[in-house]
Design a protein that fits this description.
The protein is an alpha/beta fold. The protein has eleven helices and twelve strands. The protein has helices at 4-51, 57-83, 86-122, 127-133, 136-158, 196-208, 225-232, 250-254, 257-266, 307-310, 354-358; strands at residues 162-170, 180-185, 213-217, 244-247, 270-271, 275-281, 284-290, 320-323, 340-343, 367-371, 374-378, 396-404. The protein is elongated and about 80 Å long.
Length: 406
């Protein structure tokens, strides 16, 4: 007969042993559900854009095979950089990411078209009249809309980054910081499709503005240091007068945050992890504080964003800039007398219709707004994530000029 006290003491250990298994099962279930859902949506597109469009015989077989090959490229693209030779993996990622964006646009356009036709039926359009549009005509309309949208989105995402200039009045700003100019970069997502050459162009563009300060508000990379060290090397060529400051985004935590903090410091960037620096100009001061990503606490309590800690010991009366990856961090900073928070994360929605989904998570998509009493500027981001497309949200680097509030 077992000792009850022994059984009681070992129960927590048994639960700990079971947790990884339970987490694995739950994670596997979520993955299978997502794959099944995406497969079903591909089937829907096939029915509407292949079968109902009138494709028959070998042409129909070839189109269905192409559709399912593109479907398979999406999960394979996630694994490509980890398991395949670099050139093969990169080619597969390009196919995967381009199809991801094209699939989203095709799905949106087809569903909207079907909904419009269904509503037309409710308002008296006869089945015979609807059949004129349902099929080849609808497929043609969908493709004629999506193909140029993909082309425009690709050129916009990969082209020269637009400079957005914003003037922000700051209460208590000293004369020494009047017209102080900083450039904000955010969400560059340097990785397999946004490489060293692209980043070097962005760095040259920033240097041409001759800013006083450069700030990078998270999601700089998508991958570990060992794979992307050379790709981010151009950051060492940034030459603002007062330095370059960086705060973590959620993607740094997916990519090995400790390694990236060390690497960015090696490149000469100042990494702010719930801390601040004081800039001085004569008798005037400006405090630049930075916090970890809004959700970093999931990776350990020591990583949780702490605006209170970031400004601990900061000089009283000096204006405070807060660098925080997600706009909603303003809720945590509402009692810290922040003069201006600089954020990113949203990509401005990146491409239609994602901007409507972003609004479900964040209180603002882009631009200057006041959140929980904190003035916040949210950039649309400099790079992109996933599909190399931007549609309805051009990439930006932001030149912010601080002026003295009257």
């Amino acid at each position: 007969m077992s000792d009850p006290s022994t059984t009681k003491d070992t129960e927590p250990l048994a639960r700990l042993r079971e947790m990884p298994v339970l987490l694995f099962i739950r994670g596997l279930g979520m993955v299978l559900f997502a794959v099944g859902l995406v497969a079903g949506l591909h089937g829907y597109l096939g029915l509407r854009l292949i079968r109902d469009a009138g494709a028959v015989g070998p042409a129909a077989v070839a189109l269905w095979m192409l559709l399912w090959a593109l479907f398979l490229s999406m999960p394979l693209g996630v694994l490509a950089s980890r398991t395949l030779p670099r050139r093969v993996g990169l080619a597969l990622q390009w196919v995967s990411h381009l199809w991801m964006g094209t699939f989203g646009l095709l799905l949106t356009a087809t569903a909207a078209s079907d909904l419009a036709l269904a509503l037309a039926g409710l308002f008296g359009l006869t089945p015979a009249a609807r059949s004129l549009f349902w099929g080849q005509a609808e497929a043609g309309a969908v493709w004629s809309l999506v193909v140029p949208s993909v082309a425009v989105g690709f050129v916009t995402a990969r082209g020269r980054v637009r400079v957005v200039r914003v003037k922000v009045p700051i209460r208590g700003l000293g004369a020494g910081f009047e017209d102080f100019r900083l450039v904000q970069l955010t969400d560059l997502h340097v990785g397999d499709t946004l490489d060293r050459r692209w980043l070097a162009r962005v760095v040259a563009q920033v240097n041409s503005l001759e800013p006083d300060l450069v700030v990078i508000t998270g999601d700089l990379v998508d991958g570990p240091v060992r794979r992307l060290r050379d790709e981010v090397a151009p950051l060492a060529e940034l030459f603002p007068k007062r330095g370059t400051f960086f705060v973590t985004g959620n993607h740094e935590y997916y990519s090995g945050v400790g390694g990236w903090v060390a690497e960015l410091r090696r490149l000469g960037l100042t990494v702010l992890l719930n801390e601040h620096r004081v800039l001085e100009a004569g008798n005037d001061a400006l405090v630049v504080g930075g916090v970890t990503d809004h959700d970093a606490g999931r990776f350990g309590a020591e990583h949780a964003p702490r605006p209170d800690l970031a400004f601990a010991g900061a000089p009283e009366g000096a204006p405070r800039l807060l660098l925080a990856h997600q706009p909603r961090t303003a809720r945590l900073a509402r009692d810290e007398k922040v003069s201006l928070q600089l954020s990113g994360h949203t990509h401005g929605g990146q491409m239609f219709p994602w901007m409507f989904l972003v609004r479900l998570q964040q209180p603002v998509i882009s631009g200057l707004a006041t959140l929980w009493g904190v003035p916040v500027y949210t950039s649309k981001g400099t790079g992109y994530w996933g599909p190399p497309l931007r549609l309805g949200a051009r990439p930006e680097l932001t030149e912010i000029t601080l002026t003295r509030a009257v």
